[in-house]
Amino acid sequence: MALLIELIQDAVTVLTVLIVVRAFWSWVSPHPTNPAQRLVWNLTEPLLAPVRAVLPDLGGLDLSPLAAILLLQGLEYLLLRLAVG
Q: pLDDT tens digit string along 45-83?
């Protein structure tokens, strides 16, 4: 059970860091063919696209990274509560 808890926590941490990195890169705009940027995009877009589709259009302000992180944290809390009992 401890391994499952640690796996959930590590997965949420990694995804959160990747989302923050992606948000930062959106401000500094590295070259679009950068392999690291493409990797982060490919890993985070499946989480951000559905969130972005639900959020209202705020005139170019993309709050999907913030919403996705909050959803990940909430999901982690629920899963850990279920795992612990």
A: 999 999 999 998 888 888 999 999 999 999 999 988 888
CA distance 57 to 24: 20
Identity (one letter) of the amino acid at 47?
L
Q: What value does the mean pLDDT take over residues 4-32?
A: 90
For 70, the 3-state DSSP assignment is helix
Task: Decide if 25 contacts 40 (C-beta within 8 A).
Answer: yes
| Integer Cα distance of 62 and 39 in angstroms | 20
Give CA torsion, residues 46, 51, 22, 31, to 10 deg: 70
